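[Solved] Which block belongs to which protein?

Original post:
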Amino acid sequence: MNVIRKAVRSRFCKGLPRKSEGDLLAILSDRSDWSRACAIMEMGCRPNGAFTKVLYGIIGDQSPAIRRQAAATLGKIGRSDFAEPLLERARVERVDMTRFAMCVAAVQCGADREQSRAVLAEAGARRLHGAYGSKTVGGLAGFGVATTDMLWGHIFGSGGETNISSHARAREVLGFEPENRDAVISLAVHCDRRDFDHLHGLWLAAGRRMRLTLVMAMGLHGDPRWLPFLVDALTAMDVDPAHGFALRSEAATALGRLGLKEGQAHLVRALENEALDHEGRPGAGLGIQRPVRTHILGALGELEGPSSVLLSYLGNTHGTVTGGFYLSAMYGLWKAADASVLRKTLNGPALPAANALGVLVALEGAQVASAWRQDSRELVRLVAETYSDVEVIDVP
């Protein structure tokens, strides 16, 4: 079945450059975010096409992949009247990769670069308050301040160069220096589907460090065709432990960045396998030192669920040397924005309930906490009391 699906998808992608504008637009009515994202990336290769109105209409789509690719393609079209709308949409976007794409696109359309960077900086410094106080969560899915600065520099440089010039330079460098890892990232962040074959061609001859870079590049590039490659990397067993933990961590983050809902099932299975097959083995201390599950939970957050899986980690304080998985779960639940499942958790055990309350406050405002200020569970009460003198908090 998977072989058949791969063959069908391969034929679909090979046929995209020959499709008319009307055919590409028709694909957007498909139920598959995989095919829709592929079609939108092809639209990005035709910046003079009549796609703008439709693309702007779907930057609020339920699929992170569609929101991300629609924004990126609008950036390639570069109409100035979409600069501020894209920036406003970025301010309320919860998914890190999609927010980054929106800010980049806004600048490409003419938005102020510093304002756009400020949106990303604010997101990178985001904090959530739970059972153990206020903690920074903004970098838990791979978009911390340092990473954001690095990727921004790969697109815009430090001297005010244009998107086109940095992209062209990356292609040129890789033409005579295929082991240049910086150039690989520079090529990937421009999200041009025509670069797929070049990046794919680097894989077979790549050493360990380059393979880690290429896996990161797959997520940043965003082409749905990377999905099976990333799933293979996420489930790779024929690698030594140290490289395996690094490879699976990078693959999980990249799957989250693709934004395809299809990736959820693979990540959930990997979450279970990681605990049983890797962290659970004798001598597998690297599973605690470098917990792949943190990256998997971060990726599930980027895919906005499933909330039930994220909820099961709200009380986990022992899975890593840094204090468990609960923070990644909280950040993922904030992205999923499913207040109903959080409310159901509030009447359960104290630790998950306290953390659920912190996420719910971040979603709906401090007034939510008032009903729990007299709660008999100390952890829940302490979170609620944090907002006793606050009428409302920022709910982006």
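(Second protein starts here: sequence line, then its structure tokens.)
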Amino acid sequence: MELSPLAKERLAKIGALSQEETERLRQSRDLDSLFSQYFKGELDVDALWKRLKVLKEQTGEPIVKEAQGKLVDTFRLQMSQEDFEQRRQAILAIETMKPEGKYSSLELVLNSIETLRQKYTQLKEQTYQQLKGAVESQLQAAAQQAITQGLKVDVESSIEANVKNSPQWKSFVSEHDKDNEEAFNNYINRLRELI
């Protein structure tokens, strides 16, 4: 069955992006490319700032907020300190492009996120070490008995496996992650409000 010219026109309009949508998509791709270079270490924070400033002059003020939003979207509770610091520096550098920036407020929230991340990691490590200590003495005794029977035992791997599979560890991790993810998400939402 052949479609009428009017039906063909309507179908074409449904799939076509407006000029504004096409431009936004191009800008988003430009930002993605810029951040890809930054995250790979091909650009430092100063070079990122300069390139983003050129984009801002070409496209307008909204690109600054979009750039910060993309950075905020990459934060994770369990990320390396280096990755966290890289994003922190970029967000704060970009904030200086705004005529009425909220640099101090952003810095406070970022400091709170960093403190939360550090406490999260420290408590998890402390709890792991406590459980490891409790399991270690039991496994050492069992390993000694196995060795006298001529068996070879990898005590360190056994300790780690026992701790990570213990109900106490699983319960702790589940509760610890839940509580900290909630606090982390609250800080991320606060960052989004500030940018």
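Accepted answer:
You had them paired correctly. Confirming on the second one: The CA atoms of residues 124 and 173 lie 8 Å apart.
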